[in-house]
Amino acid sequence: MRIGELSRRTGVPTRLLRYYEEQDLLHPERADNGYRSYPESAVADVQQIRGLLDSGLTTEMIRAIMPYLSGPGVLHPPAECVTPQTAALLQGHIERIQSRIDCLSRNRDRLSAYLAAVRPDPR
User: Which chain regions cross the lipid bilayer (predicted)?
Assistant: First the structure.
């Protein structure tokens, strides 16, 4: 399929699809006329890339783990394939996620307490 169809099927602008290619996340074939040609599996790949980006992973992190992804939400890296650099990258990201969760939880609790203080009792 061509880039326009992939864009329509995934909801991802063609500009971003080209960026993913530049970042070595997508690998379309090129026709003689230079047009990109994507396999059917590119739809799932783009959806997975979007999900990983939405969760806060960088394109660098995604590039490091993409070879081990077998489907959305499934990760099967053989232990010998995970380099110390990749493990450190992922551990750092886990720590950043936890910090964000902690901050969001504090903010939720503060907002809930504020609403409880200013809202009339529903009884």
Answer: none
